[in-house]
Amino acid sequence: MKRNKQEHQIDLKSWFFKFKSKWYLFAICALLAVAAGYVYVKTSPRIFQFQSTLLLGDQQTGSKKAQELLEVLDVQSRGIKVEDEIGLLQSADMIKQALQKLDFTVAYYKVTDHWLNNISDMVVEEQYETAPYEVELDTSRMQLVDVPIKVRPLDKNTFELTVEAENVPRYDFKSNAVVGSVPKLSFKKTLNYGEPYQDENMSLTINRADVEDTPGKEYYFVINSLESLIKQQQGSLEIAPIDREARVLVLKSKGSIPDKQVAFLNTLMAEYVANDLKEKNENGLKTLEFIDSQLAGITDSLRQSKQALSSFRSNNRIANINVQSNINYEKLSQLEMERARLNTDKTYYENILDQIKNGNGIAQSVSPTVGGIQSPILNNLFLQLAELNQKKAGYRTTATEDNPMLRKIESEITNTRHAIEANLQNLIESADISIANVNERIGKIEGTLARLPENERKLMDLQSQTEFIDKKYDFLLEKRAEAAITLATNATDKKIVDKASMVGTTPVNVKPKMIYLLALLIGLAIPAGFIVLMSNVDSTIQGKEDLSKITNVPFLGVVAHGSKSDKLAVMNNQRSAIAESFRSLRINLQYLMADSGFRVIGVTSSISGEGKTFCSVNLSSELAMSGKRVVLIESDMRKPTFSKYFPVAESVGLSSFLMQGLPLEEVVQKTNLDNLDIIPCGPIPQNALHLLEMPKMQELLSLLKEKYDYVVIDTPPIGYVSEYFVLMRHMDVNLYVVKHKYTNKDMLTQINELYNAKRVKNIYMIINDLNYNKTYEYSYKKKAKYYYA
């Protein structure tokens, strides 16, 4: 096939013509699209955007002055990760806490008076504290959730309650869980305001509000489950830092009721800040409880030791102690204090180890900042465990248990806990070794003191014991005071910077001008795309330019579209567009044959139905009307069609001449048009191909050439039978007929091969049945229609 260099260039004028010819599709689609846009604008709830800001501190607890005063541990301040805090804010648990502080369980709606609501309840407005009624739920009983319950006021005292739904969930507010469902529910009841209604599916009371209503107007409400509210708010909540390195978070939310969304954002931030302070206070209280438990036992011991020392002095009348004894007892006292300190540290380590082994994390254990742990490694491990727990909380808001990152964090937490346990065990073993060493030294001093007078030794024992308990008591009192100061000065490091407010004054989802413009563009794009698609998949001949892209066969002309019933268009209406088309063909053909003496014209096509016979009959008529003697031969003896054009005698014809040898005068039949004779096919033979191959065919054409100016042969289509290839050698000019929007481009492959191989001579293309109104190439001829009758 021929490939034009400009085959892939876009002919804008041609496409514009195709679009223009289908203007009604554009009008209908544009109208429907704009109507759909109008319905969308009117039925879509107006969604507004809201914004607030929250500041994250540096995770310090208490006032700066208290921090400087205490310095219980010499460790670095624990920082926070913004991503973890965002995860906590967006977690279902945090949103649940905020929603439980708000009254969003019942959502109220009003069906407006828009004309679209005559079709269905399409235009609906949500109400918040403006509904003419208020629903009071009995949360101790089952309720129907996530289904519209219609309320239609009848008068000031009564209303109509209607429910029509399928598969309605039944919700238990005590456990916040769905308990079964109702397959089909349909009821309509008339109730009084303030009258409780109760059945097996719901229990509520509808009270009249101080808002004017219209009797007969429709309202409805929906009881929301806590899970659906959480999902709804999670879906609309967006949190991000104001800058990459900033600690200021911007909270954004979307909703149709400004008051509801503002209340939600403010409550969410307030709950987040309150939870932070609550967690810090809980850690401080646990520290105080631990110290108080230690003080309770030490107080009794101190009282008993002082009482025993006083009684011993009184009974034995002892006032002074030998200097040497004092030195020994002083050393003994110091060692006893050292042993007590080691025992206290060991007890503290064992306490922390026990909590760690029992599954309590750092947030539930005694705060190491007051316990006196002097191991930097252990302190860093505790901080690392706290950060991992915080990161885990952040990931669990959006990730499942199978998330690889969550599993990795779980593994790190387990490894860190094992490291803490190992360090604590090492500290305990180290304390045991130190205690054993101190006990050995105490034993030596006690052996020395044993050689002192018994009374002095007992006195020194009592004094040493009293001093030790007294110092331990003072130490615990000091630590308790420090913990109390820390608890009293606890302050959250989170701060609400800007309370929630609406961003702008226009909805973010419904912009009428943009929606109408988009709808119009879609309405125009759909038919345009359809036309382009149909044009690309249409493999039929569309016009001269289309024909020139697929074949090198010269083009002769076109035959205009006309009525199918007018077979002899040239004779019946000489001022028609079809008659003018054949005139042009006749002139072009005579111009080509002027100097060559061509007299035999063959007309063929690819397949049946392309107008081959129609063209040969009307071209012959046009030649005859121009004053030429013409004979038209019907060589298609398999499917004769001349009887549709002329009143012919089917008993004689071409087959009679070839088989029976009838004289030429008997097979040639006259027509109503002067100068035009025809030779029909005659009786249908057994083998038409063999007849056409006989020398009699050449003899026939020789006789006809002597008598007529032109011999026109209507041949069979080359796509079905082989007769054309037999007749082709007798023809001076070959006319190949293709039909507009009918002939497939692939059907021209055979004639292209013949032409390129130079097996056929003087062949020309004719486009038949071309509608000037449906092709850009000949659209100009529409303007000449007043020249035709």
UniProtKB/TrEMBL annotation:
<dbReference type="InterPro" id="IPR025669">
    <property type="entry name" value="AAA_dom"/>
</dbReference>
<feature type="domain" description="AAA">
    <location>
        <begin position="599"/>
        <end position="728"/>
    </location>
</feature>
<keyword id="KW-1133">Transmembrane helix</keyword>
<dbReference type="InterPro" id="IPR003856">
    <property type="entry name" value="LPS_length_determ_N"/>
</dbReference>
<comment type="similarity">
    <text>Belongs to the CpsD/CapB family.</text>
</comment>
<protein>
    <recommendedName>
        <fullName>non-specific protein-tyrosine kinase</fullName>
        <ecNumber>2.7.10.2</ecNumber>
    </recommendedName>
</protein>
<feature type="domain" description="Polysaccharide chain length determinant N-terminal">
    <location>
        <begin position="9"/>
        <end position="102"/>
    </location>
</feature>
<feature type="transmembrane region" description="Helical">
    <location>
        <begin position="514"/>
        <end position="534"/>
    </location>
</feature>
<keyword id="KW-0808">Transferase</keyword>
<dbReference type="GO" id="GO:0005524">
    <property type="term" value="F:ATP binding"/>
</dbReference>
<dbReference type="Pfam" id="PF02706">
    <property type="entry name" value="Wzz"/>
</dbReference>
<keyword id="KW-0547">Nucleotide-binding</keyword>
<dbReference type="GO" id="GO:0005886">
    <property type="term" value="C:plasma membrane"/>
</dbReference>
<dbReference type="InterPro" id="IPR050445">
    <property type="entry name" value="Bact_polysacc_biosynth/exp"/>
</dbReference>
<dbReference type="GO" id="GO:0004715">
    <property type="term" value="F:non-membrane spanning protein tyrosine kinase activity"/>
</dbReference>
<keyword id="KW-0067">ATP-binding</keyword>
<keyword id="KW-0997">Cell inner membrane</keyword>
<dbReference type="Pfam" id="PF13614">
    <property type="entry name" value="AAA_31"/>
</dbReference>
<feature type="transmembrane region" description="Helical">
    <location>
        <begin position="21"/>
        <end position="41"/>
    </location>
</feature>
<keyword id="KW-0418">Kinase</keyword>
<keyword id="KW-0829">Tyrosine-protein kinase</keyword>
<keyword id="KW-1003">Cell membrane</keyword>
<keyword id="KW-0812">Transmembrane</keyword>
<comment type="similarity">
    <text>Belongs to the etk/wzc family.</text>
</comment>
<dbReference type="InterPro" id="IPR027417">
    <property type="entry name" value="P-loop_NTPase"/>
</dbReference>
<keyword id="KW-0472">Membrane</keyword>
<dbReference type="InterPro" id="IPR005702">
    <property type="entry name" value="Wzc-like_C"/>
</dbReference>
